Amino acid sequence: MNPYDFTCPGFRAAGVASGIKGDGALDLGLIVSDSPTNAAAVFTKNRVKAAPLTVAAERVRGNSIRAVLANSGNANACTGDGGVSDAENTTWVVASLLKLPPEGVIPASTGVIGQRLPAENINSAARGLVSSLKPEGFVEFAEAIMTTDTFSKISKRIFSAGGCDYTILGIAKGAGMIRPDMATMLSFIVTDAPIRKDALSKALKGAVEVSFNAITVDGDTSTNDMVILMARDDAAFKGDVDTLAAIEDKFRENLGSLLVELAEMIVKDGEGATKMVSIKVLGAPNKRTARDVAFRVANSPLVKTAFFGEDPNWGRIMGAVGCVEGDFDPMGADIYFNDLKLVSGGVGNGIESERAAARIMKNRRFDVTIDLKGGKSTFTVLTTDFSFDYVKINAEYRS
């Protein structure tokens, strides 16, 4: 991966080893904007929130965010007031080196829950971290926030609007505890496009809903999820309002595409995953029912283990569909594997269809479509199988 392929004008990044992980791996990252930004954020809906989220949520509301300080190897979650103090203290040290107000630095953490953050490691590494900042440092940052990830997740978009080219650069981490909203999933996005704060927030929420909030690996929601988006402050924009609106429209379109790509990377890297499966629900009476059915199937351990075993056990899918309340008849559902109709009106189409479905399931990626025939609403979720390795990875996570 060429770090020079992943830059965004006006932003620098770095990643260093601070000793949190204890194996010499990169575990501390920093992103800095060289000028004021507008910022937007989306945080976990888990009611147990990690200390850095408490600090970040307060800061992002009323300040010009100029930097993100992120560590891996320790979640700084369920650590009480001391954890909040650690998050505040480490960002204060970095802010002082950057000559920024502490309120302009967002903390983020991922790793083991219930252990105090080794703030002394972070503070000792802070000077080297700041001196390592460079425009091509985002690849190192992406590596520094990995936990059980097997590869770093980074991508970008370049778009033209108002006579200028703009960049959106996105980084994400996550492989387990992935389920809306959002789940041991951190994502940081920067852009040199001038975007008004309200438009930025609306664009982020819309993009997250169809990307990070439409994936699942294991159905668990983390204490530490956050997505932070920093954009060039529109106050510096010299053009007219119509041009600014056109830039925002193109930005929104490209942001959605970027986050979908990052979300798919997370599912592809799901802990122990051998399959990526798109669960698409059609014919639902409303969007909520479509979503509920899709996630019920996508999170079912029985369904996911059948995916791993390449067993087209459609009865498990029917059982999951029937667990959802709604104005539809689950007994009338049709089920497809790719274009193969496996179930018609709740009744299997025979052994030859099952054999054909089993052949489809040998692919790394395939689609399962469920037609409820009860309306016009749809929803799609990207999920994984459950393998032996998923159990092994999570059984040994703290050892």
Automatic annotation (TrEMBL):
Q: Does the keyword Iron-sulfur apply?
A: no
Where is this chain primarily localised? cytoplasm
Supply the SUPFAM superfamilies for this chain: DmpA/ArgJ-like
Gene Ontology molecular functions: L-glutamate N-acetyltransferase activity; L-glutamate N-acetyltransferase activity, acting on acetyl-L-ornithine as donor
Q: What does the entry give for GO biological process?
A: L-arginine biosynthetic process; ornithine biosynthetic process
Reaction catalysis annotation = N(2)-acetyl-L-ornithine + L-glutamate = N-acetyl-L-glutamate + L-ornithine; L-glutamate + acetyl-CoA = N-acetyl-L-glutamate + CoA + H(+)
Active site annotation, chain numbering: 184
Q: Where is this site: Involved in the stabilization of negative charge on the oxyanion by the formation of the oxyanion hole?
A: 110-111
Where found in the cell? Cytoplasm
Query: Which EC number(s) does the record attach to this protein?
Result: 2.3.1.35, 2.3.1.1
Residues annotated for substrate binding in this entry: 147, 173, 184, 271, 394, 399
Q: Does the keyword Cytoplasm apply?
A: yes
Recorded family membership: Belongs to the ArgJ family.
What is the recorded name of this protein? Arginine biosynthesis bifunctional protein ArgJ
- Taxonomic path: Bacteria, Deltaproteobacteria, Candidatus Zymogenia, Candidatus Zymogeniales, Candidatus Zymogenaceae
